[in-house]
Amino acid sequence: MRQSLKCNLVITHTVSRQHNSFFHYDSNAKAYFIEQLQTCKNLISATTTHSNVVKSGLSNDTFTTNHLINCYLRFLKINHAHKLFDEMPQRNVVSWTSLMAGYVTCGRPNTALWLFHQMQGTLVLPNEFTFATLINACSILASLDRGRRIHGRVEVMGFGSNLVVCSSLIDMYGKCNHVDEARMVFDSMCVRNVVSWTSMITTYAQNAQGHHALQLFREFTHLRMEKPNHFMLCSVISACASLGSLGSGKVTHGIVIRLCHDANDVVATALVDMYAKCGCVHYSDKVFRRIPNPSVIPYTSMIVGAAKYGLGTLSLQLFQEMIDRRIKPNDVTFVGVLHACSHSGLIDKGLELFNSMNGKYRVVPDTKHYTCIADMLGRVGRVEEAYQLAKSVHLERDGYSMLWGTLLSASRLHGRVDIAFEASRRLIESNQQVAGAYVTLSNAYALAGDWENAHQLRSEMKRTGICKEPGSSWIEIKNSTYVFHAGDVSKYSQANEILSLLKELKHRMKERGYVGGTTGLVFVDIEEEAKEEIVSLHSEKLALAFGLINMPKGVTIRVMKNLRMCRDCHESFKMISDIVERDFVVRDVNRFHHFKNGLCTCGDFW
C-alpha cells in the first residue's frame, strides 16, 4: 500500500513538472523507477514498473528506457526489449549494446551481428562493451572471418589495448582454434588482469595444449599480482585432466582448498573429472561425496569416470541414486551409463536404458547414444544387429563417422570382413577417418587370411600418402613428462637400460607361457622374429620400462596413450604386473586399464 502510494505521488509530481516539455523529467522520479527496475525480482514487477514509467511520461527518456530494456533482458524477454528499442526516439551506445548482448545471451548471436550492421548506419559509435559483445557472438559461432573483421575495426577505433576487448579477442581466437593469434593478442596487452590470463589459459586447455596452459598458470602465480579465481582454476584442472597429469592436478587441488574454492560446484565437478581422467576414481569419489547437493553435472562426471575405469556397476548405482534424488539425467549422463554398460558387458541393461531415454526421461537419443549401442552390440558379437542399426539411422557428418567407425572396429574384431569393407567404404567416401579406415580394413583382411587385399590396401595408402597417426605414450615422473614413440628410444640416455629390461621381461613372460601376439597386425615382408620385435617396442611398453627403472617400488605407474591399447600389450602388462608385483594404470583413447596381480579391471573386455 505504501509503495503504491509512493509511486502515485512520484507520478503526479513528475507530470506536474513537465510543463509540456517533452524531455523535461523529474530526477527523483527517474531515480525511483531505475531503482525499481534494478531490484525487481520477477516479470510482473517489471511490467508494473514499465506501466508506471509510461504514466509518468518518462517512456521517451533514453536513460530510463535503457534500464527497462536491461530489466526485460534479465528475464530473457528479448521481444519486449526489442519492441522498446524500436520505439525509442533516441538511442545511444548503451541501447544498442544492451540489445546485442541480449541476443547473444538468448543464443541468437547472428542477430547481434546484424544489429551492429544496422548501428553502423547511425551516428552512434561503439564502445569497448559493444566490441566485447560482438566478439563474444563470433566466439559462439566460431566465426573466424567475422571475428577478424571485428578485430580490424577494434584496431582502427583505438581499442586495441583495451583490457575488456583484448580478453574477448583471446577467447574468440581460442574458440576458433587459432591459438597463435590468441597468444599474439595476449602478448600485445600492456596491462593484464585475472580475466585476460584466464582467457589465455583456457584457450590452451581447450586446444589440447595443456602443457602451455600449466606453464602460463605457473607464470601467473609467480607474478603474485592477483589470486586465481574459480574460472582460472577450472581451466587449469581441465588441462591437468587432458594430460593425465596427476601431480599437477594434486598441486592445483591444494590451491583450490587454500583459496576456499573447494565448495564451488563447478570446481568440484572439474576435480571429479580430473581425478577420473588420471585414473584415480577413488579420489573422484571422495571429492564427489563432499559436494553437499550435487547436481546432474557432478553426477554425470562421476558416472562417466567410473565407466571409463570399467566400473559399470558403480556407474549404474550412481545413475539410480540420481533418479532416487529426483535429479533429471541429461544426454551426457546417458552417454556415460551406456558406455558403462558397453565396457562391462551389461548388454540387456544398456538396451533397457536406451529404450527408456525418450519415453521415460524425455531425452532424445543422438549420435553418441546410437554409437554406444552399436559399440555395445559389436563387443558381444552381435555385429549384424549393429550393422542394421547403422544403416537405419540418418546422421550428420561427424555423427556418421563416429557410428561407422565404431562398426568398423567391431566387424574387424569379429572377422566380418564384408561389414568391415562396407564401413570402410562409407568412411573413405565421406572423407572421414580415412587412415583409420584403411588400417582397420587391412587388419580385417589379415585376420581372414586375405593377404593379397591386405597388402593392396597398404600399397594404396603409400601411393596416396595416407598416414596412420603414430602411436605415442607418455609418463609423468616428478612433474616432468616423458613421451615415447613406437620403436624409438634414441633421445633417452637410458635407452640401453630400457631395451635390456624389456628383453628380460619378455624372457620371464615366455617362461610363464607367453607366445607373443601379432594377430591382426599387418606386416609386409617381415620375418616372424622381426614382427615380435616391433610389437615389443610399442610406445606403452617403452614408457612402462622407463617407469619401472625410474619410479620406486610401491608407486603406481601411470601411462597415457593416444591410441587404443593393442591386445599383445594388454596381455604383456597383465603378466608384467604379476612378475614385478606392481600396479600399472594405462589410459588409452577409449578407457582405463588397471593392471594388478596379473589381471586388468577391464576383464579383457575393451
UniProtKB/TrEMBL annotation:
Q: List keywords of the entry alphabetically.
A: Repeat
The record's listing under Pfam families reads: DYW_deaminase, E_motif, PPR, PPR_2, PPR_3
Can you say where the PPR repeats lie in this chain?
92-126, 162-196, 295-329
User: Any keyword Iron?
Assistant: no
Among the record's GO biological process terms, what is one?
RNA modification
Q: Which domain of life is it from?
A: Eukaryota
Give the PROSITE patterns listed for this entry.
PPR
Q: Which GO terms describe its molecular function?
A: RNA binding; zinc ion binding
Q: Which residues form the DYW domain?
A: 519-606
**PANTHER family (alphabetical):** PENTATRICOPEPTIDE REPEAT-CONTAINING PROTEIN (PTHR47926), TETRATRICOPEPTIDE REPEAT-LIKE SUPERFAMILY PROTEIN (PTHR47926:SF368)
The family classification in the record reads:
Belongs to the PPR family. PCMP-H subfamily.
| Name this protein carries in UniProt | DYW domain-containing protein
The root-end lineage is:
Eukaryota, Viridiplantae, Streptophyta, Embryophyta, Tracheophyta
